[in-house]
Design brief:
By secondary structure, the chain is of the alpha/beta class. It is built from 5 helices and 9 strands, in the order E-E-E-H-H-E-H-E-H-E-E-E-E-H.
Length: 152
């Protein structure tokens, strides 16, 4: 996983609602990238709703927030409609960005081992450097913690 002070790997990914997002195109503002395992699962839904609830506060602080998973744009759009989400979701279907950020790897649940996305969040500063990393995120209170750090 990337460490604070390292350059944030650039990417261009498709987003819900159409279009693409290129990280380097957002230079000059802080960016939050929160990686999550799967649309419409309990923890991922809670996290997306929490970031949506703070959307205006992030915007007032000049911070762009994006959720990233391997789900398709079509799944993202369904997830957004179902839960009235207000945070753009980026689709990394081939997993390149997940690998670049070190969030793709072996996981365990119910005694089974499988490959998946480790829930993690990265705060990227205005110059495109990793400012802060939250590995193995616990959802409760996370969005508020990220907002506080982004304001700092």
């Amino acid at each position: 996983m990337l460490e604070p002070g390292s350059p944030a790997p650039d990417f261009t990914l498709p987003r819900d609602g159409g279009g693409e997002v290129t990280l380097s195109g957002l230079r000059g503002q802080k960016v939050v990238l929160y990686f999550y395992p799967k649309d419409d699962t309990p923890g991922c839904t809670t996290e997306a709703l929490d970031f949506t609830a703070l959307k205006d506060e992030f915007a007032a602080a000049g911070v762009a927030v994006f959720g990233v998973s391997k789900d398709s744009v079509t799944k993202h759009e369904s997830f957004c409609r179902k839960h009235s989400l207000g945070i753009p979701l980026l689709s990394d279907e081939n997993g390149t960005v997940c690998e670049d950020y070190g969030v793709w790897g072996e996981k365990q649940m119910y005694g089974k081992t499988f490959m998946g996305i480790t829930r993690a969040t990265f705060l990227v500063d205005e110059e495109g450097q990793i400012a802060q990393v939250w590995p193995k995120v616990k959802v409760t209170g996370h969005a508020e913690e990220v907002l506080a750090a982004a304001r700092g």
